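--- STAGE predict ---
source: upstream dedup step, 1 unique chain passed
mode: sequence only
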Amino acid sequence: MKKILAFSGSPSSNSINHKLVEAAVALLDGVDATVIRLSDFELPFYSADIEEDGYPTGVEKLKELFLSHDGFLISSPEYNGMMPAMLKNVIDWVSRVQKPIFNDKPIMLMSASPGERGGMTNHDNMKSLMNWWGGKVEGSYMLGKFHEHFDADAVTLTEQESSKLKAELEKFKASL
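--- STAGE serialize ---
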């Protein structure tokens, strides 16, 4: 069975993007998914000064996770048109111990936001950077107006949104 590493780029403990990750994983049959929260890994902001003293424990743990999975499911919020600093910091650290970062593995890239565009600016930025980082975006999904699809505990997608997400997940799954 293929293994995927699934995470959100959001540092929020109540992240809508993490909820979207969990909802997407629930729709992926026949795949062994490891869902993590990046905030659980000890990672100071990248600095060459810190790197000179050795890699933080969190970097080594993430490297092992990146290497031991066949693909990635990533959902990132958009902060002022860009990915959150926490996600960029993970990319910066992992790039120091492993190149290419994503080892030419498939990626399902998602985003959720309160706006109509669903985090499109950051989503498109990340999509273009994934090739440079050694990832192959094989599925892509954006969910705008997230308040219409989330409650305190779960994601409730319309039939149309659910169909779109399932179609993208199937493309991703087929690429594993």
